[in-house]
Specification:
With 78 residues, the protein is α+β, with helices and mostly antiparallel strands. It has two helices and two strands, in the order H-H-E-E. Helix content is 33%, strand content 18%. The longest helix is centred in the N-terminal third of the chain and has 14 residues.
Length: 78
């Protein structure tokens, strides 16, 4: 699953370089994108809480680095 997520991430980064892309998916792929952006180990997936309909944001840079901008934001649901 991590391989599929990273392959799709790489394709999106290449196709939409410098643009904002919204990806709607399930919990585990979101956690995997966050884990990969942070360079965290696989077991970190079990240490993240994601609520239904929450928003998370990762920024990707031309030099290959990434940063987590937001995780599990549910303020839009109130």
């Amino acid at each position: 699953m991590a391989r599929r997520v990273s392959t799709t991430r790489d394709k999106l980064i290449a196709r939409y370089a410098g643009r904002t892309v919204l990806v709607v998916t399930h919990v585990t792929p979101v956690k995997t994108l966050v884990r990969l952006a942070l360079g965290a180990p696989p077991e970190s997936l079990f240490r993240m809480e994601l609520s239904a309909a929450s928003l998370s944001a990762v920024a990707y840079y031309a030099d290959g680095n990434a940063s987590l901008r937001m995780l599990n934001d549910t303020s839009h649901l109130r």
